[in-house]
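Sharing a chain and its predicted structure for anyone who wants a worked example. Both blocks are below, sequence first, tokens second.
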Amino acid sequence: MYRQLTLDETARLREQGCRCSNWEMISVDEGFDANGIRNVSFDGEIRIGSGVHMENIGIIRTTDGASFGEGVTVSVKNEAGDGNVILYGALTSQTAALMVRSCDDEQLFSRLRQMVEKYVSENVAACTTIGNDVTITDCRELTNVSIGDGCELCGASRLIDCTLCPTPDATIYIGDDVIMENVIVQAGATIVDGARLYDSFVGEACHVGRGFTSENSLFFANSHMDNGESCAALCGPFSVSHHKSSLLIGGEYSFYNAGSGTNFSNHAYKMGPIHYGTMERGAKTASGAHILWPAHIGAFSMAMGKIETHPDTSMLPFSYVIGNGRKTSVMPGQNLCTVGTYRDVTKWPKRDKRPQDGRKSLIIFDWLSPYVIERIKAGASFLDSLQEEQGVDAEEYSCKGFTISSAALHRGMYFYDMALRMYDGSMSTVEWTDMLGLLAPVETVQQIKEDVLTGNIDSIETLESRFRDIYDSYAQWKGYDDNEAENDEATEEWKDAIRRDAEREYAMGDVSEKQIAEFLESV
């Protein structure tokens, strides 16, 4: 419960350098202590919790039309679109994926919007609110903000229409020179070092810093953004960009790592910045990579060079995709047996910094999953069909937007056969999709869409519960292969290939004997 300031509290605040146009507009928690607030200017209706420390703040205020970032619509992937994600404090990667993939269905997207609007109306702050045990020091402007319990803001320049949603186990830190407008931040996130965010969402345990600039972008679960910039980027779990010259624009990413100087282009200088593409889970770009959207890069692939031929390699996971501007070459499966892939798939579960309780975005870490196996089976069939159609003696095979050399095709068949033998799940005919971290049978997602349309799902809470059911049923959907001996043999074959790849790098120098020995032992 909140109450008005007492006369003694108002006098104490004035003595401590605080100013307000109307002290009656400030309400405080029963346990409020005025001694912790110095040199702060207030304007409009403000609510302040107990245990709060605030010092040297230019202005904290509420203005007419405040949204606190809740219910704001942003456009991801298609930069020039009409908006395909509606922001709210409990947004998850799976719901964001559903919105993006439903935006062309006007009726379905309208239903989703109604559900979000209902959630926002029930949960949005009534005015600028500073929660319990919050620390705010040396900040310039806080306008229309809702700051949850335990958060810390130190040296931020400007927050306008923002909501910070911590949990008891994971607070939020906003640091020096940060500017945020229409931004929602979830538990465990840090935004520091002059980051600029506009119409954006920063999810659980994410980091944004070192001058990174974001516009109309979403970052979920353990994503890490430094130095570069993003626009209309839909960044699923564990999306990472560290470098100043990297630009993520108009793309969908997850379990992604951007090499230095990575750039994507969404503008053909004809119809506007309307093009977009997808880097499937685990895909990455090498230093200096440039991809001209539209393009679709398959799971766990490495994209290198200047890729301008708009390839779709979604059926060829674990590939090298190499462009020189005029031509794109694909080496199917080549990335399956590399140290980089091995380190990636083993490190992600260990690097989930979110507290175990209360995780919102649902993540299936399984790397050799039904989703990937489905694509590997399609890829193996595709390689067979290329030989049948273009001849077994061809030196190079032409595909839509890329080529495959004969040697690369045969190596790809070997790699995909190894992966299929390694797989310990059932070879079902169920079609799978990746909802930005949550692997799900397509039919279950389609049923969710139908239930939203019919009203069987009429709230955000019910929608998230349905996604949770899919997450909990993953092992059952995946099933198990009873050919354990073949699985083990193929897995050891894969590990031997990983060890050989590590030894090749050791032979280049720079890797110490201790490092190589420890790695080989760990495989």
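Comments welcome. The CA atoms of residues 131 and 149 lie 4 Å apart.
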